[in-house]
Amino acid sequence: FYNLFLNRYIVSRIMFLISDLDSTLIYSHQDEGVCVEYLDGRPITYMTDRAFNMLDMLLTVRSFHLVPCTLRSWEQTSRVSFVREGRTPIVVCDNGFSIIREGFLDKDWDRHMHSIIETDKIAALRSKILRFVEKFEIPIKQVKSNRDSFLTLIFQDAQSSKRYADGILSVVPDDYKISKQGRKIYIIPLALDKSLAVKYLQGIYKDERFITAGDSDVDKKFVLLGDIRIIPRHSSIELKNAVITKQAGALAAEDILEYCIKSNDLIPE
User: Fold this and answer.
1) Average pLDDT, stretch 216-245?
2) Run of H or E residues at 7
């Protein structure tokens, strides 16, 4: 039905869906539906069959562009099938620090971000945290750096994260924001936000329509920039005038994609 529907019409303007990935469009901690990401041969991330089919159809429409907007690195993001296959020509990674266009780093944006984010200080903070972790024998899996733009602390589980977070975060300066998401803690410079990259893209594609979607506190500012803003029902954030999906969990992706189809300004070919 959707394929027939989309092929019969064209859209008067390009519609961009700028969306977070994890817990918005794709979901881990489940083992049913369509696997869209493997790690070392192991399936780790899924979409429901219906969500996958709708996205697959939408990505065939020339006037629809999905822009993943994620905390993930480019390496992690490119594991996702529809990114790996080149079906998302623009990808925002590293919480907005990096923009990948047609598989290459946007050098203009990269120069700009390096002018406002002090990556050497973030590298030094990582070393400081690692020394703290070693000194107090804190059981942490990894202190990860995304191009020295921000840090991710990865614990064995959410309980360990809660238990040891305060001690580790005591060495973090005030000019960082903290986002706790399960077993992960993100340490992000106040100057770094996904919304910066989204504003940059909106400046390039001035006359187009933008739908934004996200589920966590690191998404809030960029979601506000959308002409239409969508929040999954399970989201931890609240935004005025936002569309809340009817369904929660992996089913929320179905509502987001269906809304993209139904909200198009359609005109006959």
Assistant:
1) 95
2) helix 2-7
